[in-house]
Design brief:
The chain is α/β, with parallel strands linked by helices. It folds into two domains: about 220 residues, Spore Coat Polysaccharide Biosynthesis Protein SpsA, Chain A (Alpha-Beta Complex); about 70 residues. The chain contains ten helices and eight strands. Strands 7-5-6-4-1-2-3-8 form an eight-stranded mixed β-sheet, sandwiched between helices. Helix 2 links the parallel strand 2 and strand 3. It starts with 9 loop residues before the first strand and ends in a 7-residue tail after the last strand. It binds uridine-5'-diphosphate (UDP) and magnesium ion. Uridine-5'-diphosphate binds next to strand 1 and helix 3.
């Protein structure tokens, strides 16, 4: 923390994918909030709202550019193409880390209550490097989203992944924690899991999650499922181990079957065993294919990691503050 003369610079990082309908409202609400924080002496006037355009196909980038032109509070990063929420967020965090003392990430639709920012800053002032925003209730989410989310968090914990219940990507991260985050080079990036691995003093702030006020969710079921699957396979190798154990148990059972089949054969009624053989053939084939699939999943991950492709490519960056370095 710096002394009161040079206040901390706060960057708010917001990934945006086709967010044309919400940007106007989001920016004006954040303008009010940031102005109050700056006037109240809580943050430096060099603080910014940094929008990351994740290869939107609508007017998102044009809106960001015009926001920036009319008010230096707003800055923007444009990615070369759509890379998905996590990569866009990472691009924003890594850009902001060179300018800011602390960064708060949130979604463009302001489903996360921006009034919680004060509490985030309080915890930061107390010396926390990471502050997690946690939804105190999911009443506003659809029953489907709530159900699938609960399943996801339960499953992750079952697999031994350290993850905070009902915490999405609304969090404050200090500069030094961001420096630490930049050391994680993995391409399959699941920020909720990785941020937990960083360590440092952290705390939790509770807030009410509201509905998306305009536009549609950019997380259809297909994206949500692939996100959950990535979360599991990037952080846990328990599925592989489970398959190994199941495979071994089935092997033991099949030994019993072999003894049974030999005995039946010696007694001259071998065709009686046809149905059990038939069943076990199918059963084992199923298990084997499943095992190969899961192993393949991890091999796919290794393949992607080994290539170490860039996780995002920045096309443009607009911000008035010159680089400190
Ligand atoms: N988003 C993104 N790239 C994508 C999909 C989503 O940057 O490919 C952003 C989106 O603009 C929003 C955030 O990720 O700011 C969360 O998306 P959304 O609100 O649609 O998800 P939900 O709240 O429905 O889970
Ligand atoms: Mg949303």
């Amino acid at each position: 923390m710096k002394d009161s003369k040079s206040k901390d610079i706060l960057y708010i990082v917001i990934p945006c994918y086709n967010e044309e309908p919400v940007l106007g409202e989001t920016s004006s609400r954040l303008k009010v909030k940031m102005t109050a924080l700056i006037d109240g002496g809580r943050i430096s006037e060099n603080s910014r709202v940094l929008f990351v355009d994740d290869g939107s196909r609508d007017k998102t980038w044009e809106i960001i550019e015009s926001l920036h032109a009319s008010d230096s509070l707003f800055a923007g990063v444009k990615l070369s193409r759509n890379r998905g929420h996590q990569n866009a967020l990472l691009a924003g965090l890594m850009t902001a880390k060179d300018k800011a003392d602390a960064v708060i990430s949130m979604d463009a639709d302001l489903q996360d209550d921006i009034e919680a920012i004060d509490a985030f800053l309080d915890k930061y002032a107390e010396g926390c490097d990471i502050v997690y925003g946690v939804r105190s209730s999911r009443k506003k989410d659809t029953a489907f989203k709530r159900g699938t989310a609960n399943m996801f968090y339960g499953f992750m914990r079952l697999l031994g992944v350290d993850i905070i219940n009902n915490h999405a990507d609304y969090r404050l991260i200090s500069k030094r924690a961001l420096e630490a985050l930049s050391e994680y080079k993995e391409v399959n990036i699941f920020l909720r899991g990785i941020v937990r691995q960083i360590g440092f003093k952290s705390d939790v702030v509770y807030y009410e999650r509201s509905e998306r006020f305009a536009g549609e969710s950019k997380y259809p079921l297909k994206k949500m499922m692939s996100f959950a699957f990535d979360g599991v396979t990037s952080f846990s190798i328990k599925p592989i181990r489970m398959v190994t154990v199941v495979g071994f148990l089935i092997f033991l059972v099949s030994l019993g079957f072999i003894v049974y089949a030999i005995v039946q054969g010696l007694m001259g009624n071998s065709e009686a065993g046809w149905s059990s053989l038939f069943c076990s053939l199918w059963f084992l084939s199923g298990i084997q294919i499943m095992a190969i699939g899961i192993v393949g999943e991890y091999i796919g991950k290794i393949y992607i990691e080994v290539k170490a492709r860039p996780r995002y490519i920045i096309d443009k960056y607009i911000d008035d503050i010159p680089n400190e370095q």
